[in-house]
């Protein structure tokens, strides 16, 4: 019993120390927050510093999981939105539980069921670092990022209103 209490106190102290070293890690980000810097590895094997994509044109990051039914609805919308706003960069970010084969199969399944060809790049978040930096706790979760790498809009889940919110943020 005494050892269990000590272990719990030690674990709490370690978590508090880690939080002090990495303020904001795991906290949900919102409009006005600075978008965190990170490298993204894509399905094609390329690695890109997202800051290169973040500048004068909008950047949209949409976090998904291959077991996410609402993501199946959102991804075709994002593709159509990208087609309407060619200057925007839209990146799909596969969550930690979605490996490359699952991501490829998921996108192919969406193409078959929706009739929409998906050409959006897919980044793999193998260790959950990107999700953690953005505070993503569920899927889909979408961030619209503008000039100065500031988050313009953070939207959890999917609904038809989400489409309107993203469109408004792009205007």
Describe the 3D structure:
The chain is α/β, with parallel strands linked by helices and 171 residues long. The protein is 40% helix and 19% strand. The protein has a 7-stranded mixed beta sheet, covered by helices on one side. Strand 6 (141-145) and strand 7 form a beta hairpin.
Count of beta strands: 7
Low-confidence stretches: 1-25
Q: What is the number of helices? A: 5
Distance between the first and last residues' Cα: 60 Å
Assembly level:
single chain
Biggest sheet descriptor: 7 strands, mixed
Mean pLDDT across all amino acids: 82
SSE arrangement, N to C: HEEEHEHEHEEH
Radius of gyration: 18 Å
Spatial arrangement of strands, main beta sheet: 2-1-5-4-3-6-7
Roughly what fraction of the amino acids lie in strands?
15-25%
Helix content: 25-40%
Given helix and strand content, the structural type is alpha/beta
Summarize it.
This protein has 171 residues and is of the alpha/beta class. It has helices at residues 2-21, 69-84, 100-114, 129-134, 160-170; strands spanning 39-42, 47-49, 59-64, 89-94, 122-124, 141-145, 151-156. The protein has five helices and seven strands, in the order αβββαβαβαββα.
